[in-house]
Amino acid sequence: MPTSSKPLTSSTKSLPVVDLASLRSSARDAARIGAALDRACCEFGFFYVTGHGIDPALSARLMTLARKVFALPLEQKLAIAMPHGGRAWRGYFPIDGELTSGRPDRKEGIYFGTELGPDDARVRAGVPLHGMNLYPALSGFRDTLLTYMDEVTAVGQLLLSGIAVGLGLAPDYFLDRYTRAPTVLFRMFNYPPSTTGAHENELGVGAHTDYGLLTLLRQDEIGGLEVWHQDRWLSAPPVPDSFVCNVGDMLERLTAGRYVSALHRVRNVSKQDRVSMPLFLDPSFDAVLAPITPLAPDPSATGRQQRARRWDGTDLATVSGSYGDYLLSKVSKVFPQLRAEVL
To answer: Out of 73-77, 117-121, 333-337, which region has the weakest mean confidence (pLDDT)?
Structure first.
């Protein structure tokens, strides 16, 4: 695979950009890109990924299908509402149907995950968040979605190998311990146009962090994603044919705070709907996480921990048990109406 002629990173007034095109080509390139990923995860917890190898036509096709789904009449979308998904925790929710810090988000969305049939051992055991997806009645939707999820998951695994190298670990460190059978969750979100312009309190989704290892987000051209960095909100505008990637809580936990699971939010101040499609690459449901030792301390991590208290009051250093325990404790607060019925 040829090496890109573009600079590896750029972070003067925006998030870093990391080109993955040469990551597989040589140990020297892996070390170079690993170092860039390490800095991005330490300083921002967010970065763009280019050179990922996914056909832009596939991403565009799924984005078009997402817009078609959200344009359907509400009664058709409610035919695949989340209560129909049961313990698999899949399906559609309407605007104000999801909470962040107890406050309704101004967005609608659909939850998907790894497709598991009724004969899967985890499904037979009734493990929450495992099972079948609910699909809208659109031609080609299921096949396009599952192909896209598989390809983005592969990019996430490649990213984790680069991050491992940047940490001085074997490339398969995360794969061998946490992501051989990952928890893969995929979302489609639609943020309606602003009703108040650029009002600070009108949020598509409030400030939060993600729960797992890595998030890989495909966003449309509208913009609105903001990242908390050095005591201010930093815009993360669309970059053509890129993913916005960010560190999740469990990667901060594994690195003992060296990497930051950064706060982020969405404010759609445009007059158009905004569609985003995040894939969450998380540890296996039963994985028990503990800090990687030894890791060199990072001065920026110490400064962050001294300045700020986490948005949800959680001290990640005290998190114990399985990843599934942590994930369920979070999602049950996001959809309290489903908590008693499903969990």
So the answer is: 333-337
Asked if residue 114 lies in contact with residue 181, where contact means CB atoms within 8 angstroms, the answer is no
Which residue segments constitute the domains of the chain, with CATH numbers given?
17-342 (2.60.120.330)
CA angle 47, 68, 221 (to 5 degrees): 30
Where do the DSSP E strands lie in 20-152? 46-50, 91-93, 99-100, 103-104, 108-113
The tokens describing 95, both together, are: 């605007």
By mean pLDDT, which of 51-60, 138-147, 307-316, 317-326 is the weakest? 307-316
Taking the C-alpha atoms of residue 343 and residue 336, their distance in angstroms, rounded to an integer, is 10
Please state, in angstroms and as integers, the Cα–Cα distance from residue 237 to each residue in 5, 167, 227, following that order. Answer: 23, 28, 11
Check if the beta carbon of residue 244 is closer than 8 Å to that of residue 152.
Answer: no
The answer to whether the pTM exceeds 0.90 is yes
| Banded model confidence at residue 300, pLDDT cuts 50, 70, 90 | low
Q: Is the peptide bond before 294 cis (omega within 30 degrees of 0)?
A: yes
C-beta neighbour count of 341 within 10 angstroms: 10
What are 225's strand-pairing partners?
266
